[in-house]
Amino acid sequence: MKRFENRSVITRMDYPNDNIGRDLKINEIAQAIHVINRRAKVVPDSSALYSLKYAVIKKLLLEQRATKLCVHRFKRVHQLHSIRDSRIDIQTIFVVVSCGEYTFHYPAEKQDIKDLKFEKKIVSIRNPRSEMSYASAKRLLLQYLQ
Q: Which Pfam families match (predicted)?
């Protein structure tokens, strides 16, 4: 902190990355989304984390920093807990989004289903490993949304 030694007040101009929404590299944002997405899969109440992920992806799409690739139908079979051999087929339609080196998905809206091409089979896409901590990822995404 040598540059602040002779000053009693630190101003906003002292922080070059204060406008984090414009200065961040797209891969840092995508890596943070990936960390949040991984965390959301293991916590009991993940709705806040998925909402954060969705809000950031929507902002990236509006800024044209992410691209919608296709629409994909994902079929899951759920075992009912009350009846031993009963199964329910649940079909969910997702939008696949590319952001930097990462790909994500979120539930499709009606307009997405009309505009984007349906992919029957998607080749398994593995996102790169991320070394970012959950706390720094969440902080970074919240700053980006401001």
A: YkyB
d(CA 95, CA 35): 19
pLDDT (tens digit per residue) in 38-84:
999 899 888 999 999 999 999 999 999 999 988 888 766 544 454 44
Eight-class DSSP state of 90: E
Domain ranges of the chain: 14-120+128-145
Rounded CA separation 132/138 (Å): 10
pTM: 0.72
For residue range 33-42, what is the model confidence (pLDDT) as tens digits? 999 999 998 9
What three-state secondary structure class fits 65? coil
